[in-house]
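PT: before anyone asks, these are the final sequences, not the draft ones from last week. 319 residues across everything. Please model them as a single complex and drop the result in this thread when it's through.
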Amino acid sequence: MELEAAKMIGAGLAAIALAGAGVGIGLIFGNYLSGAMRNPSAAQKQFPNLLLGFALAEATGLFGLVVALIILFAF
Amino acid sequence: MAINPMHQFEVYRIGPEINLGTVNLSFTNASLFMIISAITILFLLFLGTKKKLLIPSKTQFITEMSYTFIAKMINDTAGSGAKSFFPFIFTLFMFVLFCNMIGMLPYSFTVTSHIIVTFMLAATVFIGVTIIGFIKHGIKYLELFVPKGVPIILLPLIIVIEIISYLSRPVSLSVRLFANMMAGHTMLKVFGGFVISLGLLGGWLPLGFSVALTGLEILVAFLQAYVFAILTCIYLNDALNLHH
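LR: through. Structure below.
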């Protein structure tokens, strides 16, 4: 039973990584918006970069989620 | 009552069991949905290119739009020298997109939520790009690990970091797609479970959330296919145009 409890705690700790992803995504969209407000004509060109940055930032947080799921289901 | 949210990712056998030596080659629901998405793409592209009208019909418009979308993406990120890789990247994008999108249908199976599928795609890209780089530049391709303008003292450290980051490309490429798909679908099922457990009175709030999350997941399904294709283009750019 103790192993089960330790698993749960470990999975919860691993999911903290998603906080970093939240900060990263917020920074990307916030900075994009402030940049787009200053120079709206250049905003359209940077939209693919915005999506790319969003996906890259989200992925690093999801690695933590994968670790949590591996702890919960694979061990 | 509470069904396991991971139940949807279960792979089961359809039809007879086929064993080739020690390898199990049975036809599963994963293979079925891969074939469904491949046939859907073929059907769409066949219909879209059959009658070539000056004012396009809806299917022709979708076909032309996806063509110009990918062609523009390759031209912007990998340069005009990568034009000959258009069929590969187009196939990759359409396959990932349709696997993701068909996975959004209720009671269907998401092929890309299994890491072995995405790792296979990413490993193909990684090995292919490495071979292309060595064919194009020969042994000079190893200069990729030596960035320009780095102080000579830092060089041993930088080279190790560059090699590790190069080798982790297939892992990050595959885990990104797999984790996004699996996390999204698990989240949808968990919220669906809340609707049932809260009952007729309190179930409306999670139901609204589920609708919003479905919209988000469709966005993510497109976005991840796009990111997969654009990262392939960026890796290709590294291999084709060294230090640009």
